[in-house]
Design goal:
alpha+beta, six-stranded antiparallel sheet, Phosphorylase Kinase, domain 1, 11 strands
Length: 807
């Protein structure tokens, strides 16, 4: 029998014996196995199970019969001491001891540079074949991982007597839990550190490595606030080519820390990335509450299994540390979702957990929570048009909303009637077409349109519910890019709410804000400003300036003023809002939006340094990638490679999220066209801008301002390609559109004037007055008329000078 077959046989018999009473185990082994040495080994393992503290916790594996047997081979061998050499390292002092070895602070004594390391040396007598394989595996694992938040491997080798060692990056700092408490970090700061740990694990998982021992003592935070994940000593390579296969997932060798073990580890089941997700949940629970989620009392396997596999911690929000501000709801949901006992019911990956943490920090709906109308409406109020919902989610929201209405409106004596009505409504809403008659299946917009019909038809006697559902349906239309439909439905909701609640109610204000945003995206800027200003006034009167709703509305109004080219007014509105938000808790989403929108304004006013600071701060605080708007600034600054790193993956992401085209896709293409133009890749720039115009034509109405802004960029590309007549025509077309829309002061209108002036210079004619100093519509129009005169062969002797950089 080969060694592998023997180990499999031992495992199988051991598992079966564990299920028997202690008195019956020896008789079972005698009847099932005639190999005396195998019987003795299994009996020894069964005896060890009765002493879990000596085999389950790597920090306590220092005694017991198995380890005494291993230590028997250590006679005559001395432990290294401080000052001795280990390879090219000199041991300075002992830092700690664990299940596998002792860790020393060491200094390099060979080579022409100074270096300190945490040198891990296997325990005396622990260099059995299994331990040596584990130690070698840790060395291979660390060498394969290169991440800012993982302590890197510096060296590895053997001592003179053949004992393996690892030299790892020495990280001087405090355990993450102590760091958080001693620095009195708030919830958001703790979440930021937690995300760093999670990103390190995500990197490990991408390299087919599971950590399997995530706990505070394995995570250090430096004095500069940098997080480092340590000790992959019991990690398991996911690769099927790993030398020892899945040996460490077997019941025979369960190395874990009970208070931080996952249920599948305790049960001896295969360990996957889901175990790391579970341990991240334990870590997050402890960082938020100051207490452990799992409390193991007793030393028997039964006590351990009861504590880990059956015990349920309460919501962390009910057990928070006294120094922390209150939190409940979404954060509780995130933690408990990661701590579900069944691996398949946890987050599917560490990346999914990170996404929900980031969504929580930005005030966005989390994925782990049910999509109820009340929940999604409340969370969405802190967001803006960049929310990316898949079409399937939008359809599901409609269904859940209608079901929610049933639960809220049903009362004793009417429940059967309501249930029957809801069954009919949902049946009609999701009635699939006959594929023999219909060429295509319905999409989210079809379902939403059907929901509008059903709400209007069947809920006429319930104005409160009808107004609420129509508001949320209109919002979903806007998210999907169906702006005319969104404005129509929100207008209906507004009328209903005005009649039922009164013109000065918070319900009317909520609908007005969504209506204003839909009008903004539709390009109806005057109507949008009227709706947002009216909604803001009502919210300020009823809720006060500091409430999140008027704050959010003011931020959206600032974004609208920026879209209208009213940069000074936008800055004057957004700056005091930002000042009020800074230093407040629970406003991460509002801060992100306010900084981003103000950065857009400053960028287009030419204050590129100040804009860059805001973009960087917004992205860093929210732990997100740079935005498309930030990429436009990078183009203006000449950082074309940086802009490329933002725009190309973002375009791919938008196309994936929307399963095709969307106005946001066209926006990204427009920015990509600017980048390609500055890179000198004019043919590609022309193609990107043409594709953006085609998508705008599909989604937007003919007089939307985005057409004029894109046309201005197309004119400049044509000029740079030497097609002066095309450039002149496109610039005139853009300026005509801006004039009709009342946007002649818009930065893109100045770009079009700039292009037209350069065309005149290319034709050898004197150009118009310096448009960069035009401050009023009158002056801008006068300058434009001068340019038009030149194209008709007239002459005005004013040299053209380019304006300040703008979009």
């Amino acid at each position: 029998m080969s060694e592998a077959d023997r180990r499999a046989r031992v495992d199988a018999l051991f598992d079966r014996a564990l299920d028997l009473d202690e008195a019956a185990r020896e008789g079972f082994l005698r009847s099932a196995c005639d190999d005396a040495s195998m019987q003795a080994e299994i009996l020894e393992l069964l005896r060890l199970v009765a002493q879990p503290s000596s085999i389950l916790d790597p920090d306590r594996i220092v005694e017991g019969p198995l380890w005494r047997a291993i230590a028997a081979g250590s006679e005559g061998r001395a432990e290294p001491r401080e000052g001795e050499r280990v390879g090219p390292w000199r041991l300075v002092r002992e830092l700690g001891r664990g299940g596998m070895g002792t860790v020393f602070l060491a200094e390099r004594v060979e080579g022409r540079f100074q270096q300190r390391a945490a040198l891990k040396l296997l325990h005396l007598g622990a260099d059995s074949e299994e331990m040596l394989r584990r130690f070698e595996r840790e060395r291979q694992i660390l060498a394969s991982l290169g991440h800012a938040h993982i302590a890197r491997l510096l060296d590895g080798g053997c001592t003179a007597d053949g004992r393996p060692f690892l030299a790892m990056e020495y990280v001087e700092g405090r355990r993450i839990d102590r760091y958080c408490d001693e620095e009195r970090l708030d919830v958001d700061a703790r979440l930021a550190l937690f995300v760093c740990v999670a990103r390190a694990l995500e990197h490990a998982h991408r390299n087919l490595v599971i950590h399997r021992d995530v706990k505070p003592s394995n995570i250090v935070v430096t004095g500069e606030g940098e997080v480092k994940l340590l000790d992959f000593g019991i990690a398991k390579l996911l690769s099927p080519s790993a030398a020892d296969g899945d040996a460490l997932t077997r019941t025979v060798v369960r190395v874990l820390t009970p208070e931080y073990a996952s249920p599948e580890q305790v049960r001896g089941e295969p360990v996957t990335t889901a175990s790391d997700v579970y341990q991240l949940g334990l870590l997050l629970y402890e960082l938020l509450t100051g207490t452990r989620a799992q409390h193991v009392e007793g030393t028997s396997p039964q006590a351990l299994e009861r504590a880990v596999c059956e015990g349920s911690p309460g919501p962390p929000g009910t057990r928070r540390a006294p120094a922390l501000s209150p939190f409940r709801g979404d954060l509780d949901t995130i933690v408990l979702h990661a701590l579900r006992k069944e691996p398949a019911r946890r987050y599917a990956s560490v990346g999914d957990l990170i996404e929900d943490i980031e969504r929580y920090r930005r005030g966005m709906p989390i994925r782990a929570r049910a999509d109820t109308w009340v929940y999604r409406s409340g969370r969405f109020a802190a967001r803006h048009r960049a929310a990316l919902l898949g079409t399937g989610i939008a359809a599901a929201v409609v269904a859940v909303a209608l079901a929610s209405w049933t639960g809220q409106r049903s009362r004793a004596g009417r429940e059967a009637e309501r249930a029957e009505q809801m069954e009919r409504l949902l049946g009609e809403l999701f009635l699939l077409p006959n594929p023999r008659r219909d060429a295509t299946l319905p999409n989210a917009r079809d379902y939403i349109a059907r929901a509008v019909t059903l709400v209007q038809r069947d809920l006429g006697a319930h104005p409160v519910t009808r107004g609420r559902l129509l508001t949320d349906i209109g919002r979903n239309y806007a998210v999907l890019g169906a702006y005319p439909a969104a404005e129509e439905v929100l207008g209906q909701a507004l009328s209903i709410r005005e009649q039922h609640f009164g013109a000065e109610s918070t319900e009317v204000a909520d609908t007005l804000v969504w209506l204003g945003m839909a009008q903004h995206y539709r390009g109806r800027y005057p109507q949008a400003e009227a709706s947002l200003r009216r909604g803001l006034r009502i919210q300020q009167q009823l809720l006060g300036d500091d409430h999140f709703k008027p704050t959010s509305t003011a931020i959206e109004l600032g974004d609208l003023l920026h879209s209208r080219g009213q940069l000074a007014e936008a800055e004057a509105l957004l700056r005091p809002v930002l000042a009020r938000l800074q230093g407040r808790d629970g406003v991460a989403g509002l801060l992100f939006a306010c900084r981003s929108y103000l950065a857009n304004v400053l960028r287009d006013r030419g204050a590129l340094g100040a804009a860059e600071s805001l973009y960087v701060q917004a992205a860093a605080d929210a732990d997100v990638a740079p935005s498309v708007d930030h990429a436009r600034l990078l183009v203006l600054k000449g950082d074309l490679a940086g802009a490329e790193r933002v725009l190309v993956p973002e375009l791919l992401r938008l196309r994936r999220v929307y399963a095709g085209d969307h106005p946001l896709t066209a926006q990204c293409l427009r920015h990509l066209g600017h980048l390609r133009m500055e890179q000198g890749r004019l043919e590609e720039a022309e193609a990107s801008l043409a594709e953006a115009q085609a998508i705008f034509a599909q989604w937007l109405e003919a007089e939307h301002p985005m057409f004029a802004r894109t046309r201005a960029a197309q004119a400049e590309v044509a000029r740079r390609r030497g097609r002066t007549q095309d450039a002149s025509r496109l610039a005139h077309e853009a300026l005509d559109r801006f004039e009709r829309l009342g946007l002649s002061e818009h930065p893109a209108a100045l770009d079009a004037c700039h292009t037209l002036g350069r065309v005149l210079l290319d034709l050898g004619r004197p150009a118009a007055e310096p448009l960069g100093r035009c401050q009023t519509v009158t002056r801008l129009e006068a300058a434009r008329r001068q340019l038009l005169d030149y194209t008709r062969g007239r002459s005005v002797p004013v040299p053209f000078r380019a304006p300040a950089p703008n979009r």
